[in-house]
Design a protein that fits this description.
The structure holds 2 protein chains of 2 kinds.
Chain A (H helix, E strand, L loop, with lengths): L14 H6 L9 H10 L7 H5 L6 H9 L3 H11 L3 H7 L6 H4 L12 H15 L14 E5 L3 H12 L3 E5 L8 H4 L8 H13 L3 E3 L6 H10 L2 E4 L19 E3 H9 L9 E5 L3 H12 L4 E5 L11 H10 L2 E3 L2 E8 L3 E11 L5 E11 L2 E4 L19 E2 L2 E2 L13 E3 L2 H4 L4 H21 L6 H5 L12
Parallel strand pairs in A: 1-2, 1-4, 2-3, 4-15, 5-12, 6-7, 6-12, 7-8
Antiparallel strand pairs in A: 9-10, 10-11, 13-14
Helix pairs in contact in A: 2-4, 4-5, 4-8, 5-8, 6-8, 9-17, 13-14, 14-15
Chain B lengths: L5 E3 L2 E3 L3 E3 L8 H10 L3 E8 L9 E6 L2 E8 L8 H14 L4 E7 L4 H12 L5 E5 L13 H4 L2 H14 L4 E4 L8 H9 L4 E4 L3 E3 L21 E4 L4 H12 L8 E4 L5 H9 L4 E4 L1 H6 L4 H15 L4 H4 L19 E5 L9 H9 L4 E2 L13 H11 L28 E2 L9 H5 L6 E5 L9 H6 L18
The chains are: A alpha/beta, B alpha/beta.
Chain lengths: 466, 473
């Protein structure tokens, strides 16, 4: 891939967005990183490593920062997690590695693992060095990966390292999936996501953009390729199902975030309501504030204790100035041609957790409504009754250790299998599936020997396995 | 009220804190500022034959973010004219009559040269003389400094020459760059020295620039061995002070030097017999102001311990240093991990397995003791268990809801007390204060030493290890 075609160079640049969404957690400078690295105790069998879905050897990479061995540090991270850069910014570290840090039990601040990881990864990216891995000797095998998000990228990297061709099919014009389009810009910039994918392209991962895979194309891919990986994520955000929802000014959180990140959206009207209370809803509400809305409400049918957003995300939203309306449910979108208000029914929480309507309704005057009430699954193209792979409540059923679906030739990972989790979970899924596919292609047997995989220490690179 | 006032080799001291002969005592202006900051005395940077210095001339060793744990210099004695130094010395004594000024001298090894320099120095009104027999670099190549200090005969000869004319106390500064520091100390004592100071700097190369391959400090692509000092050398200095002060043929009033930067350091040197202390690196690192805490801290400690004067505790720890053969082998301690304090880092576990005696295990949870499972096996088993990870909403049941973060039992190591040799390593690596304590579990009520056992004929002298034929086991 020539320099001029690098994905990062194609990133839309908006000075206004960059100014409105500066780093939430600014990077370490070299001195601070070394001081912080020295604070790490270098635990044996560290809890942070256990808590990381990709099982990065955290004490090892931190030790290497402490000694100035930044190349070694980056390689330690990438060995376990090929998307170490985006995870270092997007991970909810408070509930993963940093949440598990033994320092908590010592009444001390946990080691800032996320920022240290970012420090090591940025040192690698700034050096211009390629990924410290080479493609394996060509096996003549090829795998089609549907969807260009973290699960497919991670899977593709494992395949390339084993000499297997990896071709990613994505409906969008740029790779990275939610990493590129769906994560709040102050956590992970669109450009940083693409920079990371550029390194994977150097490893020989191929991309087919603007390609929507339908049942017909899927059949073709199945025939052409030795295996298929489904990293298709989730589908569209749910609708409210109330009148007025089609009015101008009603959008959904994923489009909202993608639009501002790509610079297509640079301002917000005076009053915005975000419906839902998950992490994506928080990202959208914070974005509305930063885009200039004077009043941003989050509207949620239950109470703060039931919201699915992480506690630190909730705190952050409050700091940004987002207001919260609890125990209300939208009943109608009001407006003439465009949104003017959102009619909300008031509920009362009852002791058994159910919601009891109080009979009262009121109208929240708003200029824009952003829906963030969960995503539908996106598996129609996998076939109806004669399904290619078994689904359960819309999710693709996989063997957690290998990513293999009920159809031996199909593997899957990421949100389409778990219903929507963190980037790092998708990376872990992709990694397991990549190793699983390689084993499947090598063994020539339909079913992979699970016992091998159940006993796989995932933090140790797969070289150990073969 | 305890006092820091003391008398050292007949010299009345406001307090035991002197600046050592070094860059902080280069000129009168500096020394007067130091006295204003609280230093009781200063040993003027060594006066002698004209020299020219190189640059750079300092380098240091940093450790885990702590700057200047060890410090190194290839600087020579004062590069200012002798006349100027002596004139300023007189001026300082005139303005600060109660503070002590010691002239540090180093001249050519000729009787007349020493006689002349001693007289000129004492004419300034200084309180004493320190003979620099220690400088390990530059001067030694010219037959001075440690070239003198390493040869007991030279040491004695020059001390005698000085004593022939000196009217003030003569302090001989000893070099550590010698196999047995007691030998030159005995020579100095025999030659009539009034006091000793120890130690001077230790020969060292602090490090090498891995980009340019030049050792530090860099002088146009090359370097030279330099004198090591700073916190890192304190244990070596303490040992040498103890050796000198325990030897009746060597012991004299001794000014302790070597890595002193806090009141605790000073107390330790005095406990091993030093009459006062000299400080350099700490003052170079943080400035003269550090003396305030050194004096304040030492006084507070003295009050707490009931000591009125420096002499009340000077040398108090000397009887507690003995030959190994006189230690009680029946005294025994075993490690005890306080579970309520353990944070589960397991540093004690891996340290005991790799660095000590394999007496700590991770088998509190499970079917029973697994004392032969190596760290590698434990680690591999742990990885197998976490091959797929759920995402716990840890923030929902974090601190507050479920009490403070508790360490799961599976992460708290277990000490096999029966096999614990009481080496202490685990308690040294544990990051939490008082989490691992060493509990007394004597092997037998009666003390017994190796020397006693040999005397009783239990073992041939020097043949067997200490535990092999212990009659009490």
């Amino acid at each position: 891939m020539s320099e001029s075609k690098s994905f990062a160079a194609q990133a839309p640049v908006s000075a206004e967005i960059a100014a409105r969404f500066p780093d939430l957690h600014p990077p370490f400078d070299a001195t601070a990183a070394v001081v912080e690295a020295h604070r790490c105790l270098y635990c044996f069998d560290a809890p942070c490593m256990q808590a990381c879905p990709t099982h990065i050897d955290v004490p090892k990479f931190i030790k290497k920062i402490a000694t100035g061995n930044l190349e070694g540090s980056a390689k330690t991270i990438l060995d376990a997690n090929i998307l170490g850069a985006s995870c270092s910014r997007a991970c909810p570290v408070d509930v993963l590695c940093e949440g598990a840090c033994v320092m908590h039990r010592y009444n001390k601040e946990p080691i800032e693992i996320g920022r240290l990881q970012r420090f090591a990864m940025e040192a690698l990216h700034e050096s211009g060095a390629p990924l410290p891995f080479t493609p394996g000797a060509d096996t003549g095998k090829a795998v089609a990966l549907i969807g260009g998000g973290p699960a497919s990228l991670s899977c593709a990297a494992e395949l390339r390292r084993r000499g297997i061709r990896a071709v990613i099919y994505d409906a969008r014009s740029l790779p990275g999936g939610l990493n590129t389009y769906g994560i709040a810009e102050y956590k992970l910039t669109l450009r940083a996501s693409l920079q990371e994918v550029d390194l994977l392209a150097q490893l020989g991962v191929e991309f087919q953009f603007n390609t929507v895979v339908d049942a017909e194309l899927l059949a073709k891919l199945e025939a052409e390729y030795d295996a298929v990986f489904l990293g298709i994520g989730l589908g569209a955000i749910h609708k409210l199902g109330v009148t007025g929802e089609a009015l101008a000014g009603v959008t959904d959180a994923l489009n909202y975030i993608a639009d501002y990140k790509s610079g297509a959206l640079t301002s917000a009207p005076e009053r915005v309501a975000v419906v839902g209370a998950g992490n994506t809803a928080i990202d959208a509400a914070n974005a509305a504030v930063r885009l200039g809305a004077r009043e941003v409400h989050m509207v949620y049918r239950r109470g703060p204790a039931q919201m699915s957003a992480f506690a630190f995300e909730y705190e952050h939203a409050k700091q940004e100035g987002v207001k919260f309306l609890w125990h209300v449910q939208p009943t109608k979108v009001i407006g003439d041609g465009k949104v003017e208000g959102l009619e909300l029914a008031q509920y009362a929480p009852s002791s058994d957790g159910s919601l009891v309507p109080t009979g009262e309704t009121f109208v929240l005057p708003v200029d824009e409504i952003v829906l963030a009430i969960g995503q539908a699954t996106h598996s129609d193209f996998l076939g109806g009754d004669a399904a290619k792979v078994k689904l359960e409540r819309g999710r693709i059923v996989i063997d957690r250790a290998t990513g293999q679906t009920t159809n031996p030739k199909y593997f899957a990972g990421g949100d389409c299998t778990n219903g929507g989790r963190e980037v790092v979970d998708a990376v872990a899924d992709g990694k397991r599936a990549g190793v699983g596919i390689a084993a499947y292609l090598q063994s020539g047997e339909a079913r992979i020997n699970h016992s091998t995989f159940a006993a796989t220490p995932w933090a140790i690179t797969a070289e150990v396995l073969y | 009220m305890p006092t820091l006032e003391t008398t050292f080799a007949g010299i009345k001291c406001l307090n035991p804190f002197w600046l050592a002969s070094a860059p902080p005592t280069n000129c009168g202006e500096q020394i007067m500022r130091a006295f204003d900051a609280g230093w009781g005395g200063a040993v003027w940077k060594t006066i002698g034959a004209p020299v020219t210095n190189v640059s750079s001339r300092y380098s240091s060793m940093d450790l885990n973010g702590q700057k200047m744990v060890g410090f190194n210099n290839i600087e020579l004695i004062s590069d200012r004219p002798t006349e100027l130094n002596l004139r300023e010395m007189a001026e300082v004594k005139r303005r600060y009559p109660k503070h002590q000024v010691i002239a540090s001298l180093m001249v050519e090894s000729k009787r007349e040269a020493w006689h002349e320099m001693v007289k000129r120095a004492e004419d300034t009104g200084c309180d004493g003389l320190e003979l620099n027999f220690g400088c390990p670099h530059g001067m030694s190549e010219r037959g001075m400094g440690s070239a003198v200090g390493q040869v007991p005969e030279y040491c004695a000869q020059i001390t005698e020459w000085v004593k022939e004319v000196a009217r003030t106390p003569v302090i001989v500064k000893l070099t550590p760059n010698i196999s047995d520091i007691r030998v030159p100390a005995r020579a100095a004592k025999a030659a009539g020295a009034d006091a000793l100071s120890a130690i001077n700097t230790i020969n060292s190369i602090t490090g090498i620039d891995l980009d340019t391959l030049e050792p530090r400090p860099k002088v146009d692509g090359k370097s030279s061995h330099g004198g090591y000092c700073g916190p890192a050398v304190k244990p070596i200095a303490l040992n040498m002070v103890q050796q000198v002060m325990s030897d009746p043929n060597a012991a004299l009033p001794l000014s302790g030097i070597g890595g002193i930067g806090t009141w605790q350091d000073a107390a330790e040197f005095i406990l091993l017999g030093a009459g006062n202390v000299q400080v350099c690196t700490a003052a170079m690192h943080y400035g003269y102001r550090i003396v305030e805490d050194m004096a304040d801290g030492l006084l507070n400690w003295m009050s707490k311990k009931g000591y009125e004067t420096i002499d009340d505790f000077r040398g108090a720890s000397l009887p507690r240093v003995d030959d190994w053969k006189n230690l009680n082998m029946n005294y025994h301690v075993v490690a005890h991990i306080h579970e309520d304090k353990c944070i589960g880092c397991q540093l004690c576990y891996t340290a005991c397995w790799d660095g000590a005696h394999q007496c700590i295990h991770l088998d509190r949870v499970g079917d029973g003791p697994r004392t032969y499972e190596t760290p590698d096996q434990v680690f591999a088993e742990s990885l197998r268990k976490v091959s797929t990870t759920p995402i716990p909403k840890l923030d929902l049941d974090g601190p507050g809801l479920d009490g403070p973060y508790r360490t799961p039992l599976s992460r708290i190591p277990r000490v096999d007390e029966h096999h614990c040799v009481g080496c202490n390593l685990c308690s040294l690596v544990c990051p939490v204060p008082d989490c691992i304590t060493m509990e007394r579990q004597d092997k037998a009520p009666e003390p017994i030493t190796w020397a006693e056992r040999v005397a009783a004929g239990y073992v041939p002298d020097g043949v067997h290890g200490p535990n092999d034929f212990n009659p009490n086991l």
